Amino acid sequence: MNKKYFIFFICFIIFLIVIITSIAIFANSGNNNTKSKIDEELEFIDNKILGMLNSLNNIPFSNSILLEQNSIKGQSNSIGSESSEQASDSKQSSKEQSDSSSGSSSGEAAEPSKSEDYTKYNVKTQNILTNQNTEIDWDYIKNTVQILYTSWPSIMIDLHSVNVKNEDILSFSNALDVLIINIQNEEKKQTLNSLATLYSFIPIYKEQYSDDKDKINIAYTKSYIINSYVLLEEEKWDDMKTQLSKAGEYFGLIINSINENRNQTYVSKTYILINEMNNVINLKDRNLFYMKYKNLMESAMNIF
Question: Quick one: which of 58, 68, 145, 239 has the most CB atoms within 10 Å?
Fold first, then answer.
């Protein structure tokens, strides 16, 4: 082969390798971006489902909530010390004194004081043991499921793009339709079951596109904890114990792995709380279970 053609051939091969490598890097980067986006979307679904699940039993993931009271109208210099009636009397008295002192020597009206609207906020502590409110906030749940339903089509497209099985995506859509019907009919038990079914797809999806085994296992752990929480509605204590046992199995895989991105303190705390949940089931105390569930889920959510 002519030396000139040989050099050209070598350069051409190098050029092809560079092009192919660049395309592969670009495709991999794009794929990683898509996976990161899906991680955020599944976290969004996670939060919405947990919000509805907890709302059905008035369980907050915070011990306190901010309550807004009625807006208060009044002078900025008298707010907080006088009631609206006292403020009105004070302004009338000031006006009379002003009129009396100025008399006919002044034809100018007194400058009106500035009035502002204020909103008072109070922090209310919530405690599962003292919470006697059994009324379900169905308006909140209906609004939340509407948000989830509106967001689902775009999430579907992203799941398809990373080759999540079509039947698994379709099954979520069908389960979401059933959930909406149950919420519309305000059926608590059926709504709990539908929400648990929806949540069970999160680890299934993660398993099909993610390489992070710990995040897959924590998703399965949370799903089985939720199953146990839902079964409490019918007080199926033996079945609850079975679900928690499966949660413990998946969480055991996290303990035995090495991952620097996780919070080891919360890993240890979650492991302890899973074992404590089994003790609570033996006691068959509903409120105590809810307290442990709250602590357990908060701990699991802080691992990553």
Answer: 145
Angle between helices 237-255 and 213-231 (to 10 degrees): 170
CA distance 90 to 57: 48
Please give the structure tokens belonging to residue 212. Answer: 């992070």
**Alpha helices in the chain, H assignment, sequence order:** 3-55, 84-102, 138-161, 166-184, 188-199, 201-209, 213-231, 237-255, 264-283, 286-301
Tell me, what's the pLDDT at 5?
64
Structure tokens at 47: 């939060």
Mean pLDDT of residues grouped by 10 in the chain (304 residues)?
63 66 53 88 97 94 48 43 43 46 44 50 54 82 97 97 96 98 97 98 97 95 98 96 96 86 90 92 93 95 91
* pLDDT value of position 278: 86
How far is it, in rounded angstroms, from Cα 64 to Cα 6? 76
Bridge pairing between strands 64-75 and 115-125: antiparallel
pLDDT at 240: 97
pTM, 2 dp: 0.71
Give the DSSP H or E segment for 263.
none
Rounded CA-CA distance 66/142 in Å is 22
The sign of the dihedral angle between the CA atoms of 216, 221, 223, 224 is: positive
Residues 6+ positions from 274 with CB-CB distance below 8 Å: 221, 225, 244, 247, 248, 251, 296
For residue 211, CA distances in Å to 20, 21, 35, 56, 170 come to 24, 22, 10, 34, 23
Classify residue 283 as exposed, middle or buried by CB count within 10 Å of its CB (0-12, 13-18, 19+).
Answer: exposed
Among the listed residues 304, 280, 282, the one whose alpha carbon sits nearest the alpha carbon of residue 294: 280
Q: Which residue has the tokens 């204590």?
A: 237
Tokens 């092009």 map to which residue?
Answer: 19
CB 247 within 8 A of CB 239: no
The rounded distance, in Å, linking the Cα atoms of 39 and 41 is: 5
